[in-house]
Write a structure and sequence with these properties.
Elements: E1 2-8, E2 11-17, E3 19-20, H1 21-27, E4 35-39, E5 42-44, E6 53-54, E7 59-64
Amino acid sequence: MAAGVVHANGHPVNSEVPCTIEQFLRAQGLYPRSVVVERNGEAVAPSEFPHRTVQAGDRLEIVKIVAGG
């Protein structure tokens, strides 16, 4: 792995890449089951987080799931 920049929610984030989406989320302090992720314009199912790779230059949109009523 090497340091690279990933754009998360429009902001550059230095990260060790390549890594899985799950590894990236955990490195950002996010619990993978508490978010939904879009990678380069494509929605990613949570079951795919451990298998999908994040590369330098990727664009992620990460939205936290909030429960309540």
